[in-house]
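In response to reviewer comment 3 from the previous cycle, which asked for concrete evidence that the modeling workflow produces usable outputs, we include below a single protein chain processed end to end. The sequence was submitted unchanged, and the resulting structure tokens are shown without manual editing.
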Amino acid sequence: MHAVLFDFNGTLYDDKRFHQTAWQRYLKQRFGMEITAEQVEARLIGPSNRMVFTEILQLDLTEDEIHRCSEEKEAMYRAVACERPENLRLVKGVPELLDLLTGQGIPFALATASVPGNISFYLDTLGLGKWLDRDLIVHEDGSGRPSKPDPAYYIEAAARIGAPLSRCIIVEDSRAGLEAARRAKPARLIAIDTMLSEEELQKEPGVYTVIHDFTDFARFLEA
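The workflow returned the following structure tokens.
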């Protein structure tokens, strides 16, 4: 059996539109910047907030300002997600898959650039705590771990479950995440088409297959 490493945002939780709305609202409110949903998708989803503020948007911010802006933007994202009850659902098939992995003792972990406040939101409000402890979620914790597309998040996630990457399936949705996964050299790289189209994902190097949800994912677990 393969171990499994999941991205979270856009992979287990289809929240791209919540992040798009939050980035647009926050950048306009805080910096007076107008940005389209397409620009958010192309540039801001996938990398850590630190990378977005400092390298992508090239804002001149102190360390304290970076932290504060990140917290403010993510609070706005959580507020957007909570605007409707139907927004607080994992991707189809995820609960059943996590039940299966847990029941069969198949190791799995998350590798996400989410900040601690979002991790608490996912564990509590989305119910992810039923299957995962916080120490099995590699996230933006202020340690300076390089952001995706660097493979550091996946290397750490594999180490935490004691599985060699050569025996891991990685599931991703964004271009930055797919690049990080490729560089980690897993047994299989599976893409889900929540952000990019199936056609676009099939052109990505190293993608084993493209899925739409997790309803039939168990077939990929066998060696």
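The chain has two domains: 3-15+88-220, 16-85. We consider this sufficient to address the reviewer's concern, and the full set will be provided in the supplementary archive.
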